[in-house]
Amino acid sequence: MASKLQQLQARAAQATQFVTKHGNAYYKQLLEQNKQYVKDPPTVETCNELAKQLWYTRLASIPGRTESFWKELDYVKNMWRHRKELKVEDAGIAALFGIECWAWYCAGEIIGRGFTFTGYYP
C-alpha cells in the first residue's frame, strides 16, 4: 500500500512539473484558437451580462421546447393508436430507446453508489 502511495505521489509530481512547464503555452494556444468566442473586455461585468443573456435566452426558448415536446407526445400517441400497423423497424427503435434509458438508469445507480456494483461497502 505504501509503495502504491509513493508511485501515486511520483506521478502527481511528474504531472505538476509538466503543467508548470507547458501549462502557460497551452493556455495561450487555447485562447488564440478560440479568440472568436472571447467577449471584449473580459471583465466580471461582461461575464455577468453574458450569464443574464444565456438565462433569458433559455427562458425564451421554453415555449418552443414545450411545443416540440407536445408534438413528440402526439406522435407517440398516434403510433400507439395505430399499433397494429406498426413496422418492425419502429418497434426496434422503440425497444432500443427503452434499453438505452434503462442502461443510463443503471449507470446512474452505479455512480450514485460510489461505483460499486452490488451493495454498500463502507
Automatic annotation (TrEMBL):
One of its GO terms (biological process) is proton motive force-driven ATP synthesis. It comes from the Eukaryota. GO terms for molecular function: proton transmembrane transporter activity. Keywords: ATP synthesis, CF(0), Hydrogen ion transport, Ion transport, Membrane, Mitochondrion, Transport. It is found in: Mitochondrion membrane. GO terms for cellular component: mitochondrial membrane; proton-transporting ATP synthase complex. Its main location: mitochondrion. InterPro entries: ATP_synth_F0_gsu_mt (IPR006808). Belongs to the ATPase g subunit family. This is Uncharacterized protein.
